[in-house]
Write a structure and sequence with these properties.
Elements lengths: L1 H14 L3 E3 H9 L13 H11 L14 E3 L5 E4 L5
Antiparallel strand pairs: 1-3, 2-3
Helix pairs in contact: 1-2
C-alpha cells in the first residue's frame, strides 16, 4: 500500500506541473481515499506528509532510500525529483 501511496503522490506532483502545495497533494490523493485505504490512519494527511519527508533528502526525516521529492524552499511546497533512469 505504501508503494501505491508514493505513486499517487508522484502523480499529484506531475498533475500540477512538478511542484505542488501539500493542500493540492492532499486534494489529489483524497480522490483515491478508499483505494489507498487511508481510512485506517487516524491522520491520513499526516501520513502523506510523513511519506513525502521520508522520501526527500531535503528533510531530516529522510530514510536514505528513495529520494523522490525535494523541498522548493517555500513552506509546504514540494517538487518531484527527476529520475536519472
Amino acid at each position: 500500500m505504501k508503494r501505491l501511496l508514493l505513486r499517487k503522490i508522484q502523480f499529484a506532483l506531475q498533475h500540477h506541473g512538478g511542484t505542488a502545495s501539500l493542500k493540492d497533494i492532499y486534494a489529489y490523493v483524497e480522490k483515491s481515499y478508499y483505494q489507498l485505504e487511508l481510512d485506517r490512519y487516524k491522520d491520513w494527511k499526516g501520513h502523506v506528509n510523513k511519506q513525502i519527508r521520508a522520501h526527500s533528502s531535503d528533510s531530516a526525516s529522510f530514510t536514505g532510500k528513495e529520494d523522490l521529492f525535494y523541498s522548493t524552499g517555500n513552506k509546504g511546497i514540494w517538487g518531484l525529483r527527476q529520475s536519472n533512469n
